[in-house]
Amino acid sequence: MPLREIRDTDIEQECDVCGAIHAVPEDDVTVGVETEGQLDARVIPLPPCANCGATEYLISSADNEAEHPSPGSFGHRHRLMVDALHSKLVNKGRVAAGIDTAKAKGKERTTDELNKWFKGSMKLQRLKEEKSAQPEKGTPVEAEVE
After folding, report:
1. Which residue of 16, 49, 92, 145 shows the fewest CB atoms closer than 10 Å?
2. Nearest Cα to Cα of residue 56 among 15, 28, 95
3. CB-count exposure of residue 134 (10 Å: 0-12, 13-18, 19+)
4. Residue 144 — left, alpha, or beta (φ > 0 → left; ψ -120 to 50 → alpha)?
5. What is the Cα–Cα distance from 123 to 81, expressed in whole angstroms?
6. Distance CA 29, CA 95 (A)
7. Count of domains in the chain?
């Protein structure tokens, strides 16, 4: 379920299992999970898909993690979005019980860095969607005739 868009009060996610697209209110998302008595502040558990029940966990970058090897790729931009969502949730206090908000701060992404890759809109499309929105090279484009 890739993260497709971060909006003012919700996020849009796509189910990788069934392809359903869901708007998830920010109030339904928190940073942090507990597994076998250990807390992980990098994990963002998303609600189960309303269509098929699949679940996803987004994982923000570690502070010392190397930058993505393919700048501008879908994976790189998705990572930036996850990091931006993580920061947004932590700054709003959307942190699971037992997680120290001060320690939950993840890798901060600058506004300049996000604007470079998203042009002011935190929206991400898969390559097939980007291609379908543009005519293929060598394909004639019909012009309007008056």
Report:
1. 145
2. 15
3. exposed
4. beta
5. 8
6. 9
7. 1
Query: Is the CB of residue 10 less than 8 Å from the CB of residue 27?
Result: no
In a domain, 12, yes or no: yes
pLDDT in tens, 66-93: 888 899 898 899 999 999 999 999 999 9
Q: What are phi and psi of 100, to 5 degrees?
A: -75, 120
> Using an 8 Å Cβ cutoff, are 21 and 80 in contact?
no
Report yes or no: 71 and 3 within 8 Å, Cβ to Cβ: no
Is position 42 within any domain? Answer: yes
Judge whether 120 lies within some domain. Answer: yes
Separation between Cα atoms, residue 101 and residue 94, nearest integer Å = 9
Q: What is the distance between the alpha carbons of residues 104 and 92, in angstroms, rounded to a whole number?
A: 12
- pTM beyond 0.90, yes or no: no
Structural domain boundaries enclosing 48: 3-124
The DSSP bridge pattern shows strands 43-45 and 57-59 to be antiparallel
User: Is pLDDT at 133 greater than 80 in this prediction?
Assistant: no
- Burial of residue 88 (CB within 10 Å: 0-12, 13-18, 19+) is middle
